[in-house]
Amino acid sequence: MTDTAAAAAVRTGTEVDGPTPDHLDGVDLEGWGLGSNNATGLTNNKLGMWLFLGSDCLLFGALISVYLLMRHRGTGLGPEDLFDIPFTSVSSFVLLMSSMSMVFAVSAIARGEDQRLRLWLLVTALLGAIFIAGQVYEFTAFYREGLGYTTNLFSSAFYSLTGFHGVHVSVGIIMLMSLLVLSLTGRLKQDRAETVEIVGLYWHFVDIVWVLIFTIVYLIP
Amino acid sequence: MTVTHEGSADAGYEAATDGLHHEHHPSDKKYWQVGIALGVITLLEVSTYFIADPPYGHELAPLLIGGLLVMMVLKFIIIAAYFMHLKFDSRLFRNIFAGGLALAVGVFLVMLTIFEYWVDAYEEGAHDQGSTLVDG
Amino acid sequence: MAIVERPSTDSEPRALEAGPRHVSPDDALGVFRRPQGDTGWRSWLTTVDHKRIGIMYGVAAMFFFVIGGVEALIIRTQLAAPDQDLISADLYNQLFTMHGVTMIFLVVMPLGAAFMNYLLPLQIGARDVAFPRLNALSFWCFLFGGLFFNSSWFIGGGASDGGWFAYAPNTSVVFSPTHGMDFYALGLQITGIASLVGAINLIATVLNLRAPGMTLMKMPVFTWMALVTQFLLLFALPVLSVALFLLTFDRLFDANFFDIAAGADPLLWEHLFWVFGHPEVYILILPAFGIVSEIIPVFSRKPLFGYEFMVFSGVAIGFMGWGVWAHHMFASGIGPVSVAAFAVSTMFIAVPTGVKILNWIATMWGGKLHFTSPMLFSIGLVTMFTIGGLSGVSHAVAPSDTQQTDTYYIVAHFHYVIFGGALFAFMGGFYFWWPKVFGHMLRDGLGKWNFWTLLLGFNLTFGPMHVLGLEGMPRRTHSYFDGYGFNFWNLVSTVGAFLIAVSILLFFVNIWLSRRDTKKDGWVPPGPDPWDARSIEWMTASPAPKHNYDHIPVVTHRDEFWYRKYGETDDHRIVRIASAEEVAQTGHRRDVHLPAPSYWPILLCAALPLIGYGLIFNLGLAFAGGLLALLSIYGLVLEPADDPDAGHGGHDAPHGPGTDPDASAAPPEGAADKEATLVD
Fold it and tell me: Of A8, A45, B65, C265, which sits 20 to 30 A from A198 (CA to CA)?
């Protein structure tokens, strides 16, 4: 929150309700609505991303439940026949590390360190790409062992859940690369740090979802 | 790869982000600690795979599953609190995210219950493990 | 958020720009010059003004209302007498499916969106929504999704025919071989994007952009109900999205989600659909409850009774609505424990709605009632929704529901709550806010004819359905045999349906005539506040100026506008202390910067039906659509600012050229400072 809004929130006692008329000194009325000069002191973009992430919880909740229901129904190949836990563990670790590099990217731009930002953005995107490569490898292996998308209930559910997650990761990689290009062309300066933070939120969420998927789908027998 | 922590990190951050400043912005060192914690938990999680073999796998299953779920939740909270900054940001973000999450978990737990998932899963698990304790 | 008053740094106010502001082609990343000006039909295609978008939602919704109404009339004609074969059973399936989907997704939801879009910024004292271009995106997505869905009448072998609830596996390729259900699944995905993006937009708007001093508990009740509705949309739509994806993958790519032979559970679809479907019905009705909560106090000359209760009951409905979905599945074999649990939760949810009914009645009690058209329609909601609610309570009793389900008794129930509830409120809302939106009143005399014919026609159509249902007439069957005792009431129902059509015709005639009235000699514009209303949207000129408010109002009270017009004497009498014209802002200010128009939203939305058609007919087309979508997303996000003040000082910082360079399906708006030419 800005100093103004934060202070106002303290005076009114609630950060969602914003300044009241008795506490309007220091509040920029002419620029009301710009940036974080508003009722909550939070920017629209960041609030928008959090709302989207809240909504995405329902998406993955539905997909995970469908998977759980389908996992052991039907016939044919099942998880116990195919999963390579050590391999997927490494994959998970890679994604976890990418969250770390993302955090450093956000720190970097906050400090105005353009080169570091670009480095960490690149590292994050690369780690994400390695994760995707691992997924592709894993799925190809399953496919060669006879598990296609339409093979049975488990396969449809499994590929759909991990596929949705993979698409989320891929979109994230595109966003990161776009940020990198923007930075390289001088359009992502320190004053736009929040943009990187918001992309970071998305990226961490995607990582969190994998934390859930890895445990529920792979580790829990 | 080390990251040197320039001394004026917090001040720079404050000046940078449109006056947005987070009172207790974690240092890079703190992030490393968090990351290592996450790595350790992951190692623990993966280790369950290696001790979950039959024949006593099925009896251990509730304990292992419980442990896995706890670790999963812990990782979730750590990433959300520190990497996503929820611990230091406005409560509104936390409430929105927690709301969506609680709704998802609640609704789908109920749905799975109606499908008698817990009964089926337990029986299925016993069957897979070849245990004779539960009728297939 | 780029709407800002620029303080004059000169001693005089800024000069008015003489003509369209020059925007160099370099400013636009796209191929075409950045759109300018706001006259002409092209300006509507590129507008990001919430008021224009609201109007477009309303017009589109009424267009689809006519289509859905014609579908209903054909149904009713077929059912007017027993053993008829005016239309085949297959066509009948398509008709009731299209009618249901159209009315719910393309009429009632967009009508709610129309009112919420137009009113929310005005009611909270803001100049526009948080993400104006995403707002435009939502509208075009809805329109193109609706057109895409309705094109199933013409291509693909047949319109959607699986019911609006589309139970799988009945809607799988085996049992629904035409492409109708593909249009259903993909069409609703597209409109789903519209609503999801809209939800993010409006929640951010209400939370962030309230005028200083407007705490949450000072917001108008309509704003509150809209906020709850948006949260419901935010969380319910992803579940529908998953269900539709599963259906699409089954139909297009042979997945196994609903393939019983492969071991799938036939109830999976039902659960996923109704987890969305039940919050959906609250999405339909809550904005209507909000509208009525605004109208009744004005025409009772009393504040709303129990504001806190109204707010909290709305929030309670929002929460509890997530715990009742399986009451749509009482006869599906979910088992007695589940049935009992959901029966109890369903009974509980009647309570907050009952609270609202009581509060509306208590508002009117002891008030000085004025039975204008808006008031009549609002009282219509209170009475008709109560009837629908009572039949709803009888559904909650699971054993009796087992008799009622799949009969016309259910059809009666939901038409009483959706039509008698939501639609009556929207009609009232039209009459109430018409002067604010268009600057002239609808004729009140004709409005009363509109109301009474609608009330009569509506009750004639759906009242008898209670009887028919309890006598055993099943739903979704294209004809009924003679000798069952269904003949008379079906005929009455059909007559009623045509009377509804007459009533709607009267409404359109009213629109046309009242517009003509403005050209006559002696016509006097209604001014900012023709109804002597309570909330601040009436505190600005009619029609609302493009920039909404000259100066963002500072709010100190609930019903702020009323508070500024009226005071209380020592002996507690209400006296007028200012006229509306004295209090209302003139709207004459000229130096307010507003977000610039953009063609990216409509372009992005045009790509979506391409993807849809492509997935059904030709994957190459889908690919092309995807490419266009990707390009449009980049265009939207990277759209540069043309604000000459960008870079002055640091405080504008996060609003330089597009922030998020790319995003998934719901991109948060990169709030670039954009200026429009403020053409008068």
Answer: A8
Expressed as residue numbers, the domain containing A137 is 44-219
pLDDT band at C506 (very low <50, low <70, confident <90, very high): very high
Half-sphere exposure of residue C668, counting CA atoms within 13 Å on the CB side? 27
Structural domains counted in chain A:
2
Are A9 and A56 part of one and the same domain? no
Interatomic CA distance for residues C432 and C427, integer angstroms: 9
Question: For residue A204, which residues of chain B lie inside 8 Å, CB to CB?
Answer: 79-80, 83-84
Do A77 and A100 fall within a single domain? yes
For domain C49-526+589-594, the question of CATH label 1.20.210.10 is answered with yes
Interface of A with B in 119-138 (CB under 8 A): none
Sign of CA dihedral C72, C75, C77, C79: negative
CB C135 within 8 A of CB C129: yes
Chain A nearest CA to C238, separation (Å): 5
Residues of A in contact with B60 (CB under 8 A): none
Q: Are residues B61 and B78 in the same domain?
A: yes
Q: Do A111 and B19 touch (CB under 8 A)?
A: no
| CA–CA min distance A29, chain C (Å) | 8
- Cα(A119)–Cα(A112) distance, rounded to whole angstroms? 13
Chain A: partners with 3+ C-beta pairs within 8 Å = B, C
3-state secondary structure of C593: strand
Within an 8 Å CB–CB cutoff, is residue C271 touching chain B?
yes
**Minimal Cα–Cα distance from B37 to chain C, Å?**
30
Kindly state whether C14 is in contact with chain A, defined as any CB-CB distance less than 8 angstroms. no
In sequence order, what are the residues at sequence separation of 6 or more whose Cβ sits closer than 8 angstroms to the Cβ of residue C154?
A: none
Range of the domain at B51: 1-89
Sort out which chain C residues have CB atoms less than 8 A from A43's CB and list them: 654, 671
Question: Domains in chain B: how many in total?
Answer: 2
How far apart, in whole angstroms, are the C-alpha atoms of residue C87 and residue C98?
A: 15
Closest to C234 measured CA to CA, from C293, C118, C318, C328: C318
Instruction: Check residues C207 and A3 and name the one with the higher pLDDT.
Output: C207
Chains in contact with B, where contact requires at least 3 CB pairs less than 8 Å apart? A, C
Chosen for mutation from A14, A28, A56, A72 (greatest number of chain B CBs closer than 10 Å) is A72
pLDDT tens digit string along B35-84?
Answer: 999 999 999 988 888 876 655 556 777 888 889 999 999 999 999 999 99
- Decide which of C193 and C29 is more confident: C193
Q: Is A182 at the interface with chain C, CB within 8 A?
A: yes
Pick the more confident residue, A103 or A22.
A103
Q: What is the pLDDT of residue B65?
A: 87
Peptide bond connecting C543 to the previous residue in cis, omega within 30 degrees of 0: yes
C564-581 pLDDT, tens digit per residue, is 999 989 898 889 999 999
Question: How many of the other CB atoms lie within 10 Å of CB of C619?
Answer: 11
Residue C79 · residue C87 · CB < 8 Å:
no
Q: Is C334 on the interface with B (CB under 8 A)?
A: yes
Both structure tokens of C543: 């029609």
Average pLDDT over residues C171-198: 96
Of A36, A54, A215, Cβ closest to residue B20: A36
Q: Which residues of A touch C212 (CB under 8 A)?
A: 18-21, 24, 27, 29, 32, 39
* CB burial string C227-243: b at 16+ within 10 A, e below: bbbbbbbbbbbbbbbbb
How many whole angstroms separate alpha carbon A165 and alpha carbon A159?
10
**Are A28 and A98 in the same domain?**
no
Pair (A1, A97) in one structural domain = no
Chain C, 322 to 351: residues with Cβ < 8 Å from chain A are none
The Cα C636–Cα C608 span in angstroms is 15
> Would you give the distance in Å from CA C372 to the centre of its chain?
24
